[in-house]
Design goal:
Layout (H helix, E strand, L loop, with lengths): L16 E6 L5 E7 L9 H18 L6 H18 L5 H11 L7
Antiparallel strand pairs: 1-2
């Protein structure tokens, strides 16, 4: 049962947690599917399972490298401009900002 609805966004992904049971005949039973599984690592088993999961997920998603300093500058400028003039800049400025933040790479 999906209780939480998260709208689709092209720049995000979902990770589901599957709870499985292995019986004495080695048959696998699906217990439940979690739409927001815990990534907490309070116990050794959590670390052994979730650290590789997180690393492999990041490898699979392959996020673009970006300039954090430049992103902070762009966001600050856009917030200040929006607060002062009622607009945060047009499409051309957005393209310039994306080019600078993503170090010349195209956004996906």
């Amino acid at each position: 049962m999906a209780e939480d609805h998260i709208p689709h966004q092209v720049n995000s992904f979902e990770l589901f947690g599957y709870d499985l049971l292995l019986d004495s005949d080695l048959k696998v039973w699906l217990i439940e599917v979690n739409s927001s599984p815990s990534m907490g690592q309070e116990h050794l088993l959590d670390e052994q399972v979730k650290q590789p999961l997180i690393a492999e997920t990041i490898d699979l998603v392959d996020p673009l490298e970006f300039d954090r300093r430049r992103l902070a500058e762009v966001l600050h400028r856009r917030v200040e401009k929006k607060a002062g003039a009622g607009a945060a800049g047009g499409r051309q400025q957005l393209d310039i900002d994306c080019h600078a933040v993503l170090k010349g790479r195209e956004p996906r």
